Amino acid sequence: MKPISILTTIKERRSIHTFKEDIVDSEILKDIFSYGTYAPTHYMKEPWNIKLYQEDGKTKLIDAIMASYERIGMIKDSENPKSVKMIQSMRTFLGKIPHHAVIYFPIEDDPVRYEEEYAAVCAFIQNVQLVAWEFGVGVLWTITPYMHDPGFLHDIDLDPDMVKVAAVLQMGYPAKIPHNKGRTSIEEKLEIIKE
Ligand SMILES: Cc1cc2nc3c(=O)[nH]c(=O)nc-3n(C[C@H](O)[C@H](O)[C@H](O)COP(=O)(O)O)c2cc1C
Q1: I need a surface site. Which of 13, 104, 138, 192 has the fewest CB within 10 A?
Q2: Which residue from 18, 100, 17 is spatially nearest to 54, judged by alpha carbons?
Q3: Is 29 inside a domain boundary?
Q4: Residue 176 Cα, ligand 1 centroid: separation in angstroms?
Q5: Mutate which of 125, 128, 129, 140 to test ligand 1's pocket (most atoms within 8 Å of Cβ)?
Q6: Residue 46 C-alpha to ligand 1 middle, in angstroms?
Q7: Residue 40 pLDDT more than 90?
Q8: What's the 82 CA to ligand 1 centre distance in angstroms?
Q9: Strands across the sheet with 49-54, in order?
Q10: Is residue 172 part of a domain?
Q11: Cα(178) to centroid(ligand 1), Å
């Protein structure tokens, strides 16, 4: 890996929506997640956990996603030919993504602690995205309705009373890199109060 400036990586990283079908070597993925863990974490709780689905393992996740879409009404009447076609195309779409990383953390009852853990997990995710970019690996950070469905968590062997799913990261080598949409000037966001 050729090291590039963190400043360049921050600006050049893009969310990736289309992936090549090749899987990323497990050692590379371990390295990426390992760098991610240097995120700040209050009380050194390191709340991030990852379930990484790839190859035949994806079937379990995709089955859980489809069952959840039916439960929450995003897929109506699954016997209907139109729904059957839609389910099939969603399965194909998800199945072509080389890796799906479910990121979850232990639920804290105290709202301040809960926010600390969620914030640390988000810092972890952004580290992962940036490091992945340096390794030539693309990531899409997704938040989807099934993450709020307790049945989905059960189906992937998580206890919804104990853990919260923060995100599902789609990962793989980019097939296409979207253009840089840029950002609003910080002048419009920053207020400096001096007195
Ligand atoms: C918390 C979070 C959730 C996101 N969820 C989705 C998502 O579900 N689907 C999606 O296509 N992009 C999702 N994105 C990616 C954004 O669409 C993306 O960051 C934005 O368009 C800017 O593009 P860039 O990351 O390439 O700069 C999410 C980003 C964040 C931070």
Answers
A1: 192
A2: 100
A3: yes
A4: 16
A5: 140
A6: 24
A7: yes
A8: 29
A9: 49-54, 99-106, 163-172, 138-142
A10: yes
A11: 12
* Domain range for 166: 6-178
What digits encode the pLDDT tens for the residues 68-124?
A: 999 999 888 878 888 899 999 999 999 999 999 999 999 999 999 999 999 999 999
C-alpha to C-alpha distance for 154 and 149, rounded to whole angstroms: 9
pTM to 2 decimal places:
0.96
Ligand 1 contact via 80 beta carbon (within 6 Å) = no
Ligand 1 midpoint to CA 80 (Å): 32
Q: Of 43, 75, 55, whose CA–CA distance to 149 is shortest?
A: 75
The strand ranges marked E within 87-194 are: 99-106, 138-142, 163-172
Domain count, the chain: 1
Phi, psi angle pair for 126, to nearest 5°: -65, -40
Q: Whose CA is nearest to atom 20 of ligand 1?
A: 15
Assign 117 to helix, strand or coil. helix
If you take atom 27 of ligand 1, which residue's CA is the nearest one?
A: 14
